[in-house]
Amino acid sequence: MFRYLMLAGLALFLPGLFALGYAVLEGPSAWMTDSRTFWGTPIALFVFWIGLAHAGTLLSAIFLALGIKLDRRTALIAELSTLVSLVFAGIFPLMHLGVVENFYMVAPFLDARGNFANVRSPLVWDFCCIVVYALLSLLFFTTHLKARVVPALDRYCKPMAWLLFPLVLWVHTVVSLDFATTFVPEWRGAFFPVYFIVGAILSGLALVNLLICAEGYRVRLMERLQLITSWILCAIWIWDLLFKGYFCTSAFIFAVLLPQFRMVAVIRESRAGRIFFSLSILLGLFLERFYLVSPLAGVPGEPGFGLVDLGLLAFSLGGFMMLFYAARSLLNESMEGAGTYFGEVDGSDMANVEESERSREKTHGLTLSYIQPWSSEEYKTLRLPLACGFSVALLFVLWVCAQLPFVGSPYENVEVILVNVLPLSYPVIAFVAALVLACKAVWVDKAVELGRNSYVALAVALVALAVLAGMFYAGGAASRPDAVIAEAPQYGSEIVDSAHVQFVWNARCAQCHGVDGRFNDKFIREYYPVPQKLDVARIDSLGLDSLVNVVLDGRVNMNPYRGRLTESEARALVVYMRSLAEAP
Q1: Interval 211-220: pLDDT, tens
Q2: Residue 139 near residue 163 (C-beta atoms within 8 A)
Q3: What confidence tier does 315 reach under pLDDT thresholds 50, 70, 90?
């Protein structure tokens, strides 16, 4: 069965890969955007997949932290789906930026070019949160997977779950701030983080229920949670409709209305019915994410969902199926075994396990009493890692506040306050704490024995990381702000129609520089770094020929357009840019 699902994924992935390459080459003009938000399919898919990535943390880490019994096989499937979803969630913001190779510049550290990430930007918060979330999820999955072979690792699963518990809420709250901090009235409000988290939980439950149903069994507890979560989301949508007039009818039908037929026993007990409920919820939440990002999609006069958008969707769906089931086949033996369920699971066997634990405690003369949190085993394990994490986070916050603004920085006029840095604080705490916890497991408690080959691999990885960090810090000569722009030769006198020049500007340049040349506030406040102002004095000081060369060959975070624009088009664009700068 895994082989057929992988082949189906490959059939979707290959044409989708072509669409991805074309979209990266062409930039934002390739996919559907609207005149209101300038965001389009990549950001809609990012929000959708980052919501699905909450499945593993919700169903495994949070359930483990709260002491809710969940069978090992289901937990590992959920955790694996998290890792694969994060792969595709991370691709789309990078392609949306257009300058994929400069992704590291969004990380909050200084480099040789004098750049420093805009820590007021939700994009920077997204980057840090998602990277930390991915690393901790991978560490948690590996620990859980190896715990059956190395039982000593069991005692580290719950402390790591407590690190991931707030992180899953933190990540989606930060993602919601991408929307809540913009100018769109429907996105503003304190309810938005809660709304995003509920939608993420529902989509994650639907995905895991679909994956375990495809393997021939079910967990009724998760099906009930899925139904209850749809009610909560319905209440939020109705509240949003009453107070803000925002409502997506198609999402309501697929994600809320149709899943209520689960109350009909004949449909509920059918495997096809259960698959339909999960697919319906996933479709509804994708439509809701798409409508949220591009509310004018389908409106006359606005661009519609095209072949590139469809290809990006096929790329992510096919890639997920292919990567998930490839990993599932590879790890099949490790994921099977004791504690796995086949057929129907209604939760009674979980209750029997709890009852047997209570009986064992009574047999050994133990009393069932409340344990203070600071007396629990996981708290004792986490004390030192958390202390290290808080210390590093405090130093990081102080360092950032001391760096900005500094003379010569693109952000010397940007006021940075403590609130701008706080979204980065817990990811730093969680990352450092997890790192210390892993070192404690290996070198202090000896839970894992590392052989000679492991130490060699670790040394090679550290050296490679140091070289990579040095390359990122140094950057390239062409990306330096003070790099000398070579004078471009005189170009031909081909006449370019003014209407065509305006079209090219709006399609290629306006996403950063704005339609009127005065910045696109809907985009650049999340971008890095802030583009240079297009005033007449600066344009004249650089010279038209030099600016033509910039358009064709690129500079700093601007993509080269040689081969995609003719030399005459580039010169016409520079002349048009100067006319915008002259406008009152």
Answers
A1: 999 888 888 8
A2: no
A3: very high
The residue-averaged pLDDT of 156-166 equals: 91
Q: Which positions ≥6 away from 421 have C-beta within 8 Å?
A: 119, 396, 397, 400, 401
Contacts of 147 (CB under 8 A, 6+ apart): 153, 154, 157
Judge whether residue 482 has pLDDT over 50: no
CB 460 within 8 A of CB 159: no
Distances (CA, A) of 369 to 223, 294, 447, 557: 32, 53, 29, 60
Query: Which phi and psi (to 5°) does residue 186 adopt?
Result: -65, -20
- Rounded to two decimals, the pTM is 0.80
Backbone angles phi, psi at 218, to 5 degrees: -145, 155
Among left, alpha and beta (phi > 0; psi -120 to 50; other), residue 110 is beta
Judge contact between 284 and 250, C-beta under 8 A.
yes
For residue 69, pLDDT over 50 is answered with: yes
> Which helix (H) or strand (E) is 219 found in, with range?
strand 217-219
Which class is 2-339 in CATH?
Answer: mainly alpha
Q: Is 245 left (phi over 0), alpha (psi -120 to 50) or beta?
A: left
Q: Which residues pair with 558 in a beta bridge?
A: 555
Select the CATH number that applies to the domain covering 498-582 from these four: 1.10.760.10, 3.40.50.300, 3.30.460.10, 1.20.1250.20.
1.10.760.10
- CA-wise closest residue to 517 among 423, 580, 453, 436: 580
Q: Residue 541 CB: number of other CB atoms within 10 A? A: 9
Where residue 554 falls (left for φ over 0; alpha for ψ -120 to 50; beta otherwise) is left
Give the confidence band of 52 by pLDDT, cuts at 50, 70, 90.
very high
* Residue-wise DSSP of 23-64: HHHH-TTSS-B-TTT--BHHHHHHHHHHHHTHHHIIIIIIHH
Pairing, β 343-345 against β 217-219: parallel
Domain extents in the chain: 2-339, 374-479, 498-582
Q: Is the pLDDT of residue 114 over 70?
A: no
User: What does the DSSP assignment read for 143-156?
Assistant: HHHHTTT-GGGHHH
